[in-house]
């Protein structure tokens, strides 16, 4: 019988992120009341408050100031201790940067295997099958492994295991004592650098993905390029709607071609075959052609709308739920007016 451990790292305030909670619910959908929880952080008490309704067989924790920082040496040591204490054959965690950095290494220490970017997991009889995308999300494959322990990193936002609500009582917490000699604590987090909320354009938790295409920097009806107006309209909409900003490949590549560009865009904003594949509930594309290389990045966006002057663009060929044949400058100016 499999022993399933869900490993979750707490946030600086001791709480659990939505991604970690999602992974715990997914673990409960797989293991039910036999689930084993493993928490790591400087203080896990706030996290325990969030999990009072989670049914589990055991709840293990590694806590202390040395585990509050995202650091490979201490994170891996804590996760390894949890896995050994639980005698886990399956180790599940949310696929965040922190866990993706350490969990494959933990699997290696335990003599097991690891798989990342898993989008679904379910038992077929006694065998666990996981699914993930290959070839830039063009093919989906299912796989199983005989090696144990098997570490599985769940892609956030996929509601792996159906996201069923867990019910039950949280057992008493077993606090593990983990040695962290100074050699494991040599790396120190001195601080964080991040743009202000108004400058931040990539918001994974936003309800709306707002994608801009090369049409924003082309000559408009008056024969002129209106880059300044485009920047004002796009920034105004992002600030009012708190949407996440995406871009087509053609637009971010234009900086190397000597053409007009939108300076606040980079390849980090790129959505599509060679960019990101976000999972926002809604998406609005503006001045994008909507052909396959770009639209492939939208395959997990549930409601798609587009604004384009060309009624025969790719979005009109079944790739968008609604296509507005209109001038994006005029539409977004009116939208910003309504939002202000």
> Could you tell me the number of beta strands?
14
Give the overall pLDDT as a whole number: 90
| CATH architecture identity of the largest domain | 3-Layer(aba) Sandwich
Q: Report the portion of residues in β strands.
A: 15-25%
| Integer tally of domains | 2
Name the overall outline: elongated
- Give the topology string: H per helix, E per strand: EHEHEHEHEEEEEEHEHEHEEH
Structural class: alpha/beta
Task: State the CATH class of the largest domain.
Answer: Alpha Beta
What name goes with the CATH superfamily of the largest domain?
A: HUPs
Q: Compute the CA-based radius of gyration.
A: 23 Å
CATH topology of the largest domain: Rossmann fold
Low-confidence stretches: 161-165
Largest sheet: 9 strands, mixed
State the helix count: 8
State the end-to-end distance: 58 Å
- Record the strand order, biggest sheet: 7-6-5-8-4-1-2-3-9
Helical residue percent? Answer: 10-25%
């Amino acid at each position: 019988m499999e022993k399933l451990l869900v490993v979750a790292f707490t946030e600086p305030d001791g709480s659990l992120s939505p991604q970690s909670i999602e992974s715990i619910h997914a673990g409960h959908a797989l293991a039910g009341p036999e689930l084993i929880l493993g928490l790591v952080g400087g203080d896990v008490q706030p996290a325990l408050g969030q999990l009072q309704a989670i049914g589990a067989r055991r709840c293990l924790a590694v806590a202390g100031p040395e585990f509050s920082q995202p650091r490979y040496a201490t994170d891996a040591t804590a996760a390894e201790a949890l896995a050994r204490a639980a005698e886990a054959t399956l180790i599940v965690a949310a696929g965040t940067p922190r866990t993706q950095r350490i969990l494959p290494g933990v699997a290696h220490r335990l003599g097991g295997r690891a798989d990342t970017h898993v989008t679904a997991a379910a038992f077929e009889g006694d065998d666990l099958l996981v699914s993930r995308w290959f070839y830039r999300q063009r093919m989906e494959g299912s796989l199983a492994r005989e090696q144990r322990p098997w570490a599985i990193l769940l892609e956030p936002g996929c509601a792996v295991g159906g996201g069923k609500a867990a019910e039950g009582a949280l057992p008493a917490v077993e606090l593990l004592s983990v040695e962290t000699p100074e050699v494991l604590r040599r790396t120190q987090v001195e601080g964080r650098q991040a743009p202000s909320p108004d400058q931040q354009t990539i918001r994974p938790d936003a309800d709306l993905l707002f994608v801009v295409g090369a049409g924003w920097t082309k000559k408009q009806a008056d024969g002129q390029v209106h880059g300044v107006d485009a920047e004002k309209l796009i920034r105004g909409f992002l600030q009012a709607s708190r949407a996440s900003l995406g871009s087509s490949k053609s637009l971010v590549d234009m900086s190397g071609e000597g053409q007009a560009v939108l300076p606040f865009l980079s390849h980090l904003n790129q959505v599509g075959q060679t960019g990101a594949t976000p999972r926002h509930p809604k998406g609005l594309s503006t001045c994008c052609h909507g052909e396959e290389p770009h639209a492939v990045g939208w395959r997990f966006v549930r409601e798609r709308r587009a604004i384009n002057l060309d009624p025969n663009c790719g979005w009109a060929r079944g790739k968008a739920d609604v296509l507005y044949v209109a001038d994006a400058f005029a539409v977004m100016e009116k939208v910003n007016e309504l939002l202000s």
